[in-house]
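Title: Prediction job returns without error message
Component: structure pipeline
Severity: low
Priority: P3
Assignee: unassigned

Description:
Job completed but the reporter wants confirmation the result is attached to the right record. Sequence as submitted:
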Amino acid sequence: RRLYFDTHALVCLLEENGFTTQQSEVIVSALVKIMNTNLDMVYQDMVTKVQQEIALQQVMSHIGGVKKDMIILEKSEFSALRSENEKIKLELQQIKKQVMDEITKVRADNKLNLNLEKSRVKELHAQQDRALTQTDRKIDTEVADLKTMLESHKLDNIKYLAGSVFTCLTVALGFYRLWI
């Protein structure tokens, strides 16, 4: 070990300041022991360059292993995410197909209901047309019956009128003959 101060110069300095040679040497040797003990403690916490390089290489290899593990984990996680994404896509396609089937069913039901309603309306119109036609026929029949009755009453009135005129003429001729 190297000491970074001159021990002989320190002994001389102590002697100049009133210490004996023996006292100065004891103080310097105590200082050297204290410094050596302190340096031993410091060196225990320190590493040499070789140890530091070895530790650095170990750390770097450990980091390399962790990187590889991370890449493998990332790839496996990525493939898991990709497979999960594919599952979700398939589920979405199935749901989309189900929705489209439901929409088709609803459209078909609506068309069927609309066509049924149209046929009901047409049937109702046909029934109304038949009822109207029957009513028109009844009215026409009644009008024809009334015309026939009117004509027959007209003829009856003409007969009665003719009979009455002939009766009056007969009575008038009878009085005429009686007076003449």
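Comment from assignee: result matches the submitted record. Helices lie at 7-16, 21-45, 49-179.
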